[in-house]
Structure formats: structure tokens, C-alpha cells
């Protein structure tokens, strides 16, 4: 009985890995061409007011671009948030990132060429283990 | 709180602590190294997380109680997670098997819940060895004396209590209060 439990655990992890891979094998481009989600244009999810000092400091050395301000749930430790930077910086359109545990917000500076999508951002947070619950986009 | 005070608190906690605090699953593509020591075993544990849902690793164990040393291959799977604005709760399944013998393995469940200030966790493991089979229960509570932001030095004061069916006594770390 005990060995079956262990076997089930191993099988579960393999199934999960396979599900992750299958999800990556197709894309969602074009699925939403005919309508626009409210989230794509900017969900007003500022559950905690943005610290304007933090924002001003963040954009101080950025001449142009788009600033995504994301409210994130589950971002309660430094270790948890490490993967956020590493994952987002894989996108060459990302210029700068600021993670604030205190306010539960992540600021991401994108180049103007990037089509910033809350759905894409939310998926990245989900795959890192957190939940994006709010999104605002400001253009410089 | 200044950096000097944070370093002082951190060093005090390290000196009186006998466990390294870490995560059973890291961020996707991340690795973790842990050292653990208690009255029965000490171990060096490395794991890699292909995704946020599971990790695979190997643990080198020195079992002082049974006078044995071996490597255990381990897997941890995230059953469920709850994220709120100020907290995160997790539940995991875990299991491992010794490279020495198929009759030496363990499996169990553990969970944790934390905010930026508080940490709590529990663990229930069934361990099967060639010498005897036993169960191990652990509870842990932690407190952050100061709140560090991202990229700053963080420190936790942790109290852990453990009981296994071999000794059948509660042992607490770092202080004996039970």
C-alpha cells in the first residue's frame, strides 16, 4: 500500500509536467481578436494606492515606454518573488522591474513596441506561483 | 531599521538556530540547497523546480540514530495554494526513496502558511527503513523581527517542535520549552 502511494506521487508529478508541456504547445494568439477584454485596456485593480514616490523613482531614468503596475497576491517573501524578475527579464521588451513586497505591487517598464497584455502578465505570475489581481498601464 | 541592526539580528538568529530555512519548491527553473540537523539526522538536500508545481531532488542523509548514511531521491508536489494580498498558504505531497535499498523510503504531507511577519508549517512523514518504520510529525512557527523589502536582508526567528514514534517525545528547536 505504501509503495503504491509513492508510485501515485511520482505519477502525479509526471502528469503535471506533461500538462505543463501540452499547454505550451499551443498558443492563444488570435483567440480574442474580435473583442477586447476589460483587462487588456487596464483593470483598475489598485487595491493599495500606488506610492507615487516609488513610481517617480522607478521612472527617473526611463525616457520613454509603458509602465505596467500590477497588484499581486501571494507575494509575501523575497524568495517567492525571485522568479518574477528572472522570468520577466527573459522578455527583451522589458526595460526595468521593481518588486515591492510592502505594497504587493510589481512595476514593469516595457518599451513602446510591446503590446502589453494583462492576460500575458497574469499567466507569467501564475506560472511563478502568484496571482495578478490588478493592472494599470501608464505611458511615458 | 538600519542595515547594521538587521545584520546583527540575522547573525544572532543564525548562531542560535540549527536549521536552514528554505522552500520545498522553488520558482520555475530555480534550485535550492538546504542543510538540516536534529537529534536523529543531518542532511544536505538539493532540489530543482521545473515548475512551481513540483520539485525533484537528492538528499544526502547521515542517520545518527541508525548509524547509517545514504542518498534519498525526493519529489515534492504542490497539491494546492492559496494567495491573498497579505498571505500565502501551501499544501504539498512529498516522497523519497533511498538509492541503497527499495525497502527504504518515505512519504508524507506538509503545509505552510505565511505572511511577511509570521510563518507556520506542519509536516507528517511516514518513514520506512530496514531497521524500523516510524512516523515523524513536525510543527514550526516563525516570526520576522523586522520586515525587509525585496532584495534586502531577511531574518526569521523560528521555533520547531518534532516528535517521532521511536522516541515518542517532543523535541523543540532551538529552545527546549516542551
Q: What does this protein look like?
A:
The complex is a heterodimer of chains A (140) and B (178). Chain A is α+β, with helices and mostly antiparallel strands and 140 residues long. Chain A has helices spanning 2-24, 38-42, 52-59, 78-88, 118-128; strands spanning 66-73, 94-100, 105-110, 131-139. Chain A has a 4-stranded antiparallel β-sheet with strand order 2-3-1-4, sandwiched between helices. Chain B has 178 residues and is mostly beta strands. Chain B has a single domain (3-173), classed as Porin (Beta Barrel). Chain B is 8% helix and 56% strand. Chain B contains 1 helix and 10 strands, in the order αββββββββββ. Chain B has a 10-stranded antiparallel β-sheet, with no helix packed on it. The two termini of chain B are 33 Å apart. Mean pLDDT of chain B is 85; it is low at 13-21. The chains are: A alpha+beta (140), B mainly beta (178). Chain A binds chain B through residues 2-3, 5-6, 9-10, 12-13, 16-17, 20, 47-48, 71, 73-74, 76-84, 86-87, 99-102, 104, 127-131, 133, and chain B through 22-23, 26-30, 50-54, 56, 75, 77, 81, 83-88, 93-95, 97, 105, 107, 114-116, 126, 128, 147-152, 154.
Amino acid at each position: 500500500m505504501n509503495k503504491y502511494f509513492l508510485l501515485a506521487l511520482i505519477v502525479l508529478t509526471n502528469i503535471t509536467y506533461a500538462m505543463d508541456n501540452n499547454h505550451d504547445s499551443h498558443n492563444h494568439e488570435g483567440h480574442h481578436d474580435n473583442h477586447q477584454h476589460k483587462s487588456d485596456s487596464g483593470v483598475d485593480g489598485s487595491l493599495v494606492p500606488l506610492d507615487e514616490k516609488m513610481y517617480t523613482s522607478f521612472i527617473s531614468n526611463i525616457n520613454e515606454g509603458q509602465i505596467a503596475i500590477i497588484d499581486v497576491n501571494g507575494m509575501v517573501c523575497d524568495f517567492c518573488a525571485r522568479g518574477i524578475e528572472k522570468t520577466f527579464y527573459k522578455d527583451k521588451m522589458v526595460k526595468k522591474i521593481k518588486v515591492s513586497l510592502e505594497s504587493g505591487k510589481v512595476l514593469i517598464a516595457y518599451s513602446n513596441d510591446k503590446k502589453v497584455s494583462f492576460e500575458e502578465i497574469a499567466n507569467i505570475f501564475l506560472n511563478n506561483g502568484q496571482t495578478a489581481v490588478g493592472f494599470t498601464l501608464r505611458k511615458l | 531599521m538600519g542595515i547594521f541592526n538587521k545584520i546583527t539580528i540575522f547573525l544572532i538568529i543564525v548562531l542560535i538556530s540549527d536549521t536552514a530555512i528554505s522552500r520545498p519548491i522553488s520558482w520555475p527553473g530555480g534550485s535550492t540547497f538546504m542543510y538540516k540537523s536534529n537529534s536523529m539526522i543531518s542532511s544536505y538536500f538539493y532540489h530543482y523546480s521545473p515548475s512551481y508545481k513540483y520539485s525533484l531532488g537528492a538528499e544526502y542523509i547521515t542517520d545518527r540514530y541508525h548509524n547509517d548514511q545514504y542518498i534519498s531521491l525526493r519529489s515534492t508536489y504542490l497539491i494546492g495554494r492559496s494567495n491573498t494580498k497579505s498571505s500565502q498558504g501551501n499544501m504539498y505531497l512529498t516522497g523519497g526513496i533511498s538509492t541503497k535499498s527499495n525497502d527504504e523510503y518515505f512519504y508524507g504531507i506538509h503545509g505552510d502558511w505565511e505572511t511577511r511577519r509570521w510563518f507556520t508549517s506542519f509536516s507528517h512523514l511516514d518513514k520506512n527503513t530496514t531497521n524500523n518504520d516510524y512516523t515523524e510529525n513536525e510543527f514550526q512557527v516563525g516570526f520576522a523581527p523586522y520586515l525587509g523589502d525585496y532584495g534586502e536582508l531577511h531574518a526569521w526567528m523560528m521555533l520547531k517542535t518534532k516528535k517521532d514514534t521511536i522516541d515518542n517525545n517532543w523535541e523543540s528547536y532551538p529552545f527546549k520549552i516542551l
